[in-house]
Design brief:
Rossmann fold; about 40% helix
Length: about 400
């Protein structure tokens, strides 16, 4: 895709042609919701996966007007397309009332047999969840589409560029990615926050986005964030919930299964994409060299591991580990593939202190696989810890394959 998005042109940010990159996401066999932030390629994926589907685009104002006035019109559209392999409704949160019609159609077809598959995409879970909207009575799975993984891009993956601009399909390859990221940010604030009346003061919410960017890849202290953006803690908590509902950020909980030590209680916070983090994080002369790069690097690993958990078969959960004595491991994957503990360091030289948290975790969980990811080009195994080049780890991370192996050479 090419071109620069102007903040005043909302359609441009959503309509840029995305590169033809196969995705790791595998759809379930039945009906499903496909959630993901705007620009992750949900519409493009659905059109590639279901070329003969009936597509209902709720980003089109005319479609929203007609279906909003009479949701039952959807039933008539489906009846007029009997050969459609699926019914794809884009941005279903724009008209939650359509879910009642979808639910009724699914039940009718179940009684008669047959019927199309429903694929319901959304970039915000807020209206669907907060409004108590019918989520098809459990008849549809909930799935997620993330920014690209490095392994999806293959030879197109450029580590240095990714740290600066992230891996959003709608941004990747743009002539001016930083300008497009700024427009992407403005689009969310204007269309999802201001237009929907989610906050009383858009200015306060914009300050909150800037303030919480300093907490990216860090343990979240919401009281400090509230103080920085000059709002109450309750308001800051509400803003954070909006950010999560819009799928722009998430909290990472502490891993506490069969804990043998006293652990921290607060979660860490991450923006969903390294580029979106940089678009919100202000820079200045007081920033330490590598400070922002380090947070972006950890966030880049986080978004890959989160995508791996969602795309892989079986149940996997992503956590971090932090004791009261400040012994930390950045990421812990817990699930059917085992326990994997991963530490990320923005350095080209491996030091003994970098292994401290992983060794402590390994003492508590002897079956865990341990890895230290750095900018070093060497692949080593030191005291049972695999030390791997971070770009090679990301490029090789593939859903369905354990994230860590015992490769390397003993130091």
């Amino acid at each position: 895709m090419r071109g620069t998005m102007r903040s005043g042109d909302a359609a441009a940010i959503l309509r840029l042609t995305m590169a033809s990159v196969p995705r790791f996401f595998t759809p379930p066999t039945g009906h499903f919701f496909l959630f993901g932030p705007r620009g992750t390629g949900k519409t493009w994926w659905a059109r590639q996966a279901y070329p003969s589907a009936l597509h209902v685009d709720l980003l089109d104002p005319e479609t929203v007007r007609r279906l909003g006035a009479r949701p039952e019109r959807l039933r008539e559209m489906i009846a007029a397309a009997p050969q459609a392999e699926a019914v794809v409704i884009d941005e279903v949160q724009k008209l939650p009332a359509l879910l009642e019609v979808v639910h009724a159609v699914i039940e009718e077809h179940q009684r008669r047999g047959g019927g199309p598959r429903f694929v319901l995409t959304g970039s915000s879970a807020r209206k669907l969840r907060r409004g108590g909207v019918n989520l098809l009575g459990g008849r549809a799975a909930q799935c997620w589409l993330h920014p690209y993984m490095a392994a999806e891009l293959g030879k197109q993956f450029e580590f240095a560029a990714t740290l600066e601009s992230g891996l959003l399909p709608v941004i990747l390859g743009a002539d001016e990615p930083q300008a497009n990221l700024a427009a992407y940010n403005a689009l969310y604030i204007r269309e999802e926050v201001q237009a929907e009346g989610l906050v009383r003061s858009v200015g306060s919410f914009a300050r909150f986005l800037e303030a919480i960017s300093f907490s990216h890849a860090s343990v979240l202290n919401l009281a400090n964030v509230a103080r920085e953006c000059e709002v109450s803690r309750k308001t800051a908590e509400g803003y954070l919930e909006i950010l999560e509902d819009l799928l722009l950020g998430y909290r990472l909980p502490v891993f506490s299964r069969r804990a043998k030590r006293q652990l921290a209680a607060h979660p860490k916070f991450y923006f969903f994409d390294a580029g979106v983090f940089r678009a919100n994080r202000p820079t200045g002369p007081l920033d330490e060299p590598g400070e922002i790069d380090g947070a972006a690097l950890e966030g880049l690993v986080a978004q890959h591991l989160r995508a791996w958990c969602h795309y892989s078969q079986g149940r996997h959960q992503l956590h971090y580990w932090l004791t009261r004595s400040q012994v930390e491991v950045d990421f812990v994957i817990y699930g059917e593939s085992g326990i994997h503990a991963i530490e990320v360091k923005n350095t080209g030289r491996i030091r003994p202190e970098h292994l401290r948290g992983l060794k402590a975790f390994g003492e508590d969980y002897p079956t865990a696989r341990l890895a230290l990811l750095t900018r070093s080009r060497e692949r080593l195994v030191i005291d049972g810890v695999s030390c791997l080049p971070i770009d090679e780890f990301l490029a090789g991370l593939t859903p369905g394959t354990p994230p860590l192996s015992t490769e390397g050479r003993t130091a």
